[in-house]
Every structure is written in structure tokens, then in C-alpha cells.
Design a protein that fits this description.
By secondary structure, the protein is mainly beta. Helix content is about 15%, strand content about 35%. The longest helix has about 35 residues, at about 20-55.
């Protein structure tokens, strides 16, 4: 359109010339118009090609689920939207239910009444009681850490509390950290708690859905992964400590909604699987101070099918290790270390809410070498994945009548 207006303007300004010269100039203008118009789309193509050349993260091939490899046993049922599970030293399980209940379930499925001492939660939409984690020194201090959605001035946000596990519940429960600021809405709270080897803990967070731009704003903890001390304070060696206008607890930023996280058993590195929108779920290993792009870059699209941000790559923003389109809607993960599934050792195992099932990523040199999927025929939303002491797996199904499932190798499969 710009080229056409320019050519027409030139024509009008040449009306004073006599006819032969006017015709020659008009022929020249038409020739230039044709060449310029042909160059414009070429420039667009070149720009797109350069973008694609830099956006080279590997994409999941969306493999079909494999059948006959695992056996599924229902350990417990009747749980209302169970969200997280932690295995106690005596092999009983602590299980959170999103409406705000924390229960102890025995290894044979017998449950008890909800434990006392759980903080009041904002149980709406995706909000509620979320992750549960044991203190690394649980045998001595008996401390339990919970992440949950909390209401307050401005709306709601993610918070972390800890309490000592006693005979009837949590004792001396205290909120040790709160996401800032609290905002309206009931989506994208994260959240997983992962203890580092130095005793600090990572807390993964969402950008609260309607506030996606805040993921790039270091003055908030929306759309961030934070690293805190066990008392909720910020470690002095965090990447943004001392930076004006930045929250000192921030570890990494540019995240959308991280509901799967685990520490690598050998390297001690944090690994996450993060929700995209319509496409664009990501496998990352978030590093200190780095920007993971949301909502500026993404391999997905908005739910309206409109493009997100500026494309799939931008200088200064990290590329995912691997991405999914269509999505798996990831929630809960482990890096498998057991012997029961010997061939799975070193794999990342992640739960899938949509289409559902268990996703296995075989890793080699920090990259995904192959992806396999299981339990697609269950038709269940898998909310959490945990490894038991014997190498079996516990899965939680996200439903009003949710279950704890135990996964073992099928009898006809070599271990």
C-alpha cells in the first residue's frame, strides 16, 4: 500500500511535464513499483526465515501411547482433586486435595481424617492447596512445606507455609513466603516446591493468567521461579540481590505456569516442564538470572489462535530444551533413579493432564533423545508423579473422585 501511494504521488506531481516526457516517467514509475512490491514480501520471507533459523528447539513428535508395558493398581480413591503427594519415611503418603485438605494415606490405601493445622486456602478455579514437600531433615525436624493459593488485599496469590507434623496434624504452621502482588483471577498459581542440595528451596509460580506481562517485570514474583531459605528469606547469592527494582528472591523469570519440577539426582540442576497456551509446553532447566521468554516468545498460540508476542526467538531469551505442540499439559515430574524400571533410569517422567497419561523423556547429554507415552487408555488427568522407595511410581488422578495409582512393570515386560 505504501509503495502504491508513493508512485501515485509522483505521478500527480509530474502533470506539468509535456506528454512524451510524462509517458516515459510513468513507465519508469510503473517498473519501479513492480520491483518494489516484489521486494516487500521477499523481505518478510527473509525476516521470517532468520527468525526460524534461530528458533531451533526440538519439537515433540507426539508419539502414540504404548500399551502393555506397565500395570496399574488403584491404591486409594475418593480424593477430591488430589494435587500432590509426598512419601514419608514409613512409606505412608501425605496427599493434598485442592479444596484445602491434607491427608495421610497408608501404602495399602487406608486414609484418615484430614490433618489439622493446614492454612486457609483460596479454593477457586486452579487455586487451592497445591504442593507438599518434606524438609530434607524431616527425620529430625518433622517439617512439612506446603504451597497454596491465598486470598488477600488485591485478590489472590501463591504462598508457602511450613509446620511440624504431629500426631493430629501440623503444629506451629506459619506462612513463610508470599507471591507479590496479589491479583484478581483464579488461574496460574503454579506451583511446585523443590529443595536444593544446599537446603534452599525453589518455588515455581504462574503469572496469574491475565497478568502475563508481569512475567518480564522483576519488581513482581508473577511468572517467576524463586529461591528462598527455609525461613522464607532470600539467599544472599540469588542473581538479583542488590539490583534496584528487583525482588531478591527471584531465580529466573519469563515463565507462564510451572507445575512440574524436580532436581537432577546427579547434577543437582533444576528441571521443569512448563505449561504453554495452545501449544508451546516447554522442558527447561532454569538457570540463575535467565529470562525464559514468556510472553515475548513462545512456540504456542493464544487460545484465540492469535500469535503470541514477537515470535519464537529473541536475543537475551532462552530457548527450551524441548517443546510440545500439541500440548501435554504437564503436571508433576520425577527424574527416575529406581531399579524396578531399569530401562527407565535417568529418564524424566512427567504427568499429562491433556490428553492424559505418563510421558517418558529419555535423556542424553542434557537433550531429549526419545519420547514415549503410557496410560493413554486410562482417560485420566495425571496431576502428580512420585517415585516410591521400591522403584514403583505413584500417580495422582485429577478428578472429583481422584485416585492414587501405583505403577509397576507388566509381568511380560523385562525389567
Amino acid at each position: 500500500m505504501t509503495v502504491q501511494i508513493t508512485v501515485l504521488t509522483i505521478r500527480r506531481r509530474l502533470v506539468f511535464l509535456f506528454s512524451p516526457m510524462k509517458m516515459s516517467i510513468m513507465r519508469f514509475c510503473m517498473t519501479m513499483k513492480s520491483k518494489l512490491v516484489s521486494l516487500v514480501p521477499a523481505a518478510w520471507v527473509l525476516t521470517y526465515a532468520l527468525s526460524v533459523a534461530h528458533a531451533d528447539a526440538p519439537r515433540s513428535p507426539t508419539p502414540a501411547p504404548i500399551k502393555g508395558v506397565v500395570e496399574v493398581q488403584t491404591i486409594a480413591k475418593g480424593l477430591e482433586h488430589p494435587w500432590s503427594l509426598a512419601v514419608l519415611p514409613d512409606r505412608r503418603m501425605l496427599v493434598t486435595e485442592r479444596p484445602g485438605r491434607l491427608r495421610i494415606v497408608s501404602s495399602d490405601g487406608h486414609g484418615a481424617e484430614p490433618l489439622a493445622g493446614v492454612p486457609r486456602v483460596y479454593a477457586s478455579g486452579q487455586g487451592g492447596l497445591l504442593d507438599v514437600a518434606l524438609s530434607p531433615a524431616f527425620d529430625k525436624d518433622r517439617l512439612i512445606y506446603l504451597s497454596f493459593a491465598e486470598s488477600g488485599e488485591g485478590g489472590a496469590g501463591t504462598a508457602v507455609a511450613r509446620g511440624r507434623l504431629g500426631e493430629r496434624g501440623l503444629e506451629n504452621t506459619q506462612v513463610i513466603w508470599r507471591q507479590q502482588p496479589k491479583v484478581s483471577g483464579s488461574n496460574h498459581f503454579g506451583s511446585r516446591i523443590v529443595f536444593r542440595r544446599d537446603g534452599t528451596l525453589f518455588v515455581t509460580l504462574g503469572e496469574r493468567f491475565n497478568y502475563s506481562d508481569s512475567a518480564q517485570d522483576l519488581s513482581t514474583t508473577l511468572g517467576k521461579i524463586v529461591r528462598i531459605n527455609p525461613d522464607g528469606s532470600a539467599p544472599k547469592d540469588n542473581p538479583f540481590v542488590g539490583r534496584a527494582g528487583a525482588r531478591p528472591e527471584i531465580w529466573s523469570y519469563g515463565h507462564r505456569n510451572v507445575q512440574a519440577a524436580a532436581l537432577h539426582p546427579e547434577t543437582g540442576q533444576l528441571w521443569t516442564v512448563e505449561h504453554g497456551a495452545r501449544g508451546g509446553d516447554e522442558l527447561n532447566h532454569p538457570e540463575a538470572g535467565k529470562n525464559y521468554g514468556w510472553p515475548v516468545i513462545s512456540y504456542g498460540r493464544h487460545y484465540s489462535f492469535l500469535p503470541i508476542g514477537e515470535g519464537t526467538a529473541k536475543e537475551g531469551m532462552e530457548q527450551p530444551i524441548y517443546y510440545w505442540d500439541p500440548v501435554i499439559a504437564p503436571s508433576g515430574m520425577v527424574l527416575y533413579t529406581g531399579e524396578l524400571f531399569a530401562a527407565w533410569k535417568g529418564s524424566i517422567l512427567a504427568g499429562s493432564l491433556t490428553p492424559g497419561g505418563l510421558v517418558r523423556l529419555m535423556m542424553k547429554d542434557g537433550k531429549v533423545a526419545q519420547e514415549e507415552r503410557y496410560l493413554g487408555d486410562l482417560g485420566e488427568r495425571i496431576r502428580d508423579v512420585r517415585q516410591a522407595a521400591d522403584g514403583s511410581l505413584y500417580l495422582l488422578t485429577d478428578a472429583r473422585d481422584g485416585r492414587i495409582l501405583r505403577i509397576t512393570p507388566a509381568n511380560n515386560v523385562s525389567k
